[in-house]
Design a protein that fits this description.
Strand order of the largest sheet: 1-5-7-6
Largest sheet: 4 strands, mixed
Number of helices: 3
Distance between the termini: 27 Å
Shape: globular
Helix content: 10-25%
Radius of gyration: 13 Å
Number of strands: 7
């Protein structure tokens, strides 16, 4: 599960994917388990939910390069694009509304575009979190 965002700009609307992962880590009792992974250029935490092993990943890059971290983790942890969930902001959704999307285009989102490019696939499931238009 990758929370897309701008690593150095936490707390901004466009980094809501990382905030969602922080909350998920708290709920899965692994919030203290984040560690920097230099191979992926990301912060990662390992968790288990309903007998599924999860890799939580927050890229340590700007949004338009998030895909490099996601693709590195996919290679290291032997993940296929269809195993990956991207959590990201969506300007076209009202604040707080969420939607799940399976595959498809990036719909103008630079972080998703970066993931599609780096993974050579658009088969990732996306959790789109509404941030509304300013």
């Amino acid at each position: 599960v990758a929370g897309l965002g701008n690593y150095g700009l936490r707390g901004t609307r466009h980094s809501v994917g990382m905030a969602v992962l922080d909350q998920l880590a708290r709920q899965l009792a692994v919030a203290e388990g984040w560690r920097a992974d230099r191979q992926c250029c990301a912060d990662i935490a390992l968790a288990t939910a309903r007998s599924l092993e999860l890799l939580l990943l927050k890229p340590r890059r700007f949004m338009n390069l998030n895909g490099l971290s996601v693709a590195s983790a996919a290679e290291i942890y032997n993940l296929r694009p269809e195993d990956i969930y991207l959590v990201h902001d969506d300007l076209d959704k009202a604040l707080g509304k969420v939607a799940i999307k399976l595959g498809g285009s990036a719909r103008g989102h630079n972080g998703v575009r970066s993931c599609i490019s780096a993974l050579h696939s658009n088969e990732m499931t996306r959790l789109r979190v509404g941030i509304g238009r300013p």
